[in-house]
What we know:
Helix content is 28%, strand content 27%. It is α+β, with helices and mostly antiparallel strands. Residues 2-134 form the CMP/dCMP-type deaminase domain.
Amino acid sequence: MDINKKLINLAIEARKKAYTPYSKFNVGACLLCKNGEIYTGCNIENASLTPTVCAERTAIFKAISEGNKDFKKIVVVGGKNEKLNDFCAPCGVCRQVISEFVNDNFEIILAINENNYKVYNFRRDIFPLGFTKDDLD
Ligand code: THU
């Protein structure tokens, strides 16, 4: 199967595990590492609200904590309740976290299903002019 379709279907599966008693907005992510490893994530909310973590960061932190930090692309799917009929773009915090680990070729795929998705270049289309570790030198 085409790799993008595979990642999209894994993100849709991961989304089913979202813990969202407050927003009911369910997000799934699927991260492909350069070595072929794949990590999925869902959003996990909290009664205290601010500890909530997005699906993208769940996937990225899973990968980092398993020793993988070279990433190729990430798929994001999201929508209210069971619905999945619009594209869900990553929040600003997730953009900053993604930015920490990716190079100029990293892709982000916003998907509704395996036949309906958009591919973006992360640095060019999603997060230009970000603050990075280079700025600290
Ligand atoms: N959310 C994500 O998981 N990823 C995004 O890119 C956008 C927002 C989650 C956070 C919260 O649980 C819910 O969606 C509503 O904001």
